[in-house]
Write a structure and sequence with these properties.
By secondary structure, the chain is mostly helical. The protein has one domain (13-111). It is 50% helix and 11% strand. It has helices at 13-28, 32-62, 76-85, and strands at 67-70, 92-97, 107-109. It has a three-stranded mixed β-sheet with strand order 1-2-3, covered by helices on one side. Helix 1 (13-28) runs antiparallel to helix 2.
């Protein structure tokens, strides 16, 4: 059974856009439709990351204490790099590692302890 899909059947404009790109790719085989879809999604994602960084920076700047990050795992280095670039590394105390391969059990990872 084939049904007609109408624009109003979608919950939002983003869903409509994704469907249209995928449908156009399916009907034409032109990869440009998929690239456009991915580019639009990336731009939306990148914008959200910028806003998140602004909010995080503002909250950390006001924070009067030092952070101990639990469960950062391999992302501890990335977290430290972010804090250093934002000149907020003085707010970072260290990471508490839960992964057994990293010495787990909720121990402080001295590799990142400041």
């Amino acid at each position: 059974m084939m049904e007609t899909i109408r624009r109003e059947d979608f919950a939002d404009e983003k869903s409509r856009g994704i469907f249209e790109h995928r449908f156009n790719y399916y009907t034409t085989g032109n990869m440009e439709h998929i690239l456009n879809m991915v580019t639009e999604e990336y731009n939306d994602f990148a914008g959200r990351i910028v806003e998140l960084r602004k909010k995080l920076y503002a909250r950390l700047k006001e924070f009067d204490g030092r952070l101990l990050i639990y469960g950062a795992g391999v992302h501890a280095g990335l977290t430290m790099d972010f804090l250093e670039r934002m000149a907020l590394d003085n707010k970072f105390a260290g990471c508490c590692v839960s992964d057994a391969q990293e010495g787990g059990g909720g121990k402080i990872n001295r590799r990142f302890l400041r």
